[in-house]
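Here is an idea for our session: we take a single protein and study its fold together. To get us started, please write out a protein record for me. Once you have written the record down, we can walk along the chain together.
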Amino acid sequence: MRIFLVWTLFSGGWAVTGPTHVMAKQGSSLAVSCSYKPGYELYSKYWCRPRFLWFCFTYIAHTNGSEVTVTQDGVSIRDNHMARSFTVTLSGVTPSDAGWYSCGLSKTLWFNLWHNIEVIVSAGKAGLGTKQGHAMEPVTVLGTGRPQPGEHRGSQSGNKLLAGTETCWRLPWCKSG
């Protein structure tokens, strides 16, 4: 029985990966990229808000296993089999979009594989911000968006994830690759 429980919990462990935290300014668009291991290319991919025990009962957007872009209520999802990743784009982000989401793939009824992501929405208008009177330019950094030990997670406004890289504004917590 114990072996079955361990196998159930970890059989697809880490099959879906992505950032842990992403940020967007209110009114902007947010693109989040999640990757998956080989062998899952033809499975349906989804984006949802988990409810009870991190399970999703309805999907905000989902594919049917193809690479066709699907758009539902301002949220689009597109799978790229060659890159083994799918990208979810939220348009016109609002404060109500903040919270925890799951990007995942549907295996069977109760054995989906997923990765949890926190979406943080900052106040202000979308677009380039300023820091001490200078326009901030976006820089690309590699990583998951997680701050390293000792880094400050405070004012992380204006970043988004796309295709496995993090685009963020030049702030103290943001490191270029």
